[in-house]
Amino acid sequence: MNKIIAVDFDGTVVTHEFPEIGKEVPHAVRVLKRLNENKVKIIVWTMRCGEHLEKDAAGWFEEREINVWSYNTNPQQASWSQSPKCYAQAYIDDAAIGCPLIHPENGERPYVDWLEVERLLEEQGFLDKIKT
Questions:
Q1: CATH entry 3.40.50.2300 includes domain 4-89+110-123
Q2: Where are the domains of the chain?
Q3: CA dihedral 10, 67, 42, 57 (to 10 degrees)
Q4: Residue 16: φ, ψ to 5°
Q5: How far is residue 28's CA from residue 113's CA, in Å, rounded to a whole number?
Q6: pLDDT, tens digit (0-9, with 9 covering 90-100), for 42-86
Q7: What does the alpha-carbon distance between residue 32 and residue 34 come to, in Å, rounded to a whole number?
Q8: Can you tell me whether residue 4 is helix, strand or coil?
Q9: Which long-range contacts (CB under 8 A, 24 or more apart) does 61-64 make?
Q10: Is the dihedral of CA 105, 109, 17, 89 positive or negative?
Q11: Global pTM value
């Protein structure tokens, strides 16, 4: 079975600086590439639209050679549902209750703790465990 993860953009893979692209959140690129290597389909699930999505966010993933299956939609979903909610088995979003966050000391908005997310993804079978 193909695994699908929906990943937010601002506050999740980059810090909050909309409409600009924020700083890369530590470990996000490495973990996203591991998801690609593990054949997990990534849907970017973001409030960005228009040029902010199609140029800025999509360009961010392309520049880092992270394969994105889709933006804000599950391409297979129309065959079984007309719901606008994007289907995925997991959602990584800084606004989700329970998502592990880093709270910067400088008072900036929190962002996703990708080291802890990576551990959870291994635990839940989305990523092969790294042998130590």
A1: no
A2: 4-89+110-123
A3: 20
A4: -70, 110
A5: 8
A6: 999 999 999 999 999 999 999 999 999 999 999 998 889 888 889
A7: 5
A8: strand
A9: 64/29, 64/32, 64/33
A10: positive
A11: 0.93
Residue 128 has pLDDT above 70, yes or no: yes
Two tokens, residue 89: 């088995």
Q: Which residue has the tokens 């692209």?
A: 21
Using the structure block, give the residue that is written with the tokens 């409030």.
Answer: 47
The Cα–Cα gap between 117 and 73 comes to 22
Q: Which are the contacts of 43, defined by CB distance < 8 A and separation ≥ 6?
A: 4, 5, 6, 7, 68, 69, 70, 71, 72, 73, 74, 86, 88
- What is the amino acid identity at position 85? K
d(CA 13, CA 10): 6
Whether the CA torsion 43, 49, 50, 54 is positive or negative: it is: negative
Pairing state between β 101-102 and 111-112:
antiparallel
Residue 29: other Cβ atoms inside 10 A? 18
Q: Are 69 and 43 in contact (CB under 8 A)?
A: yes
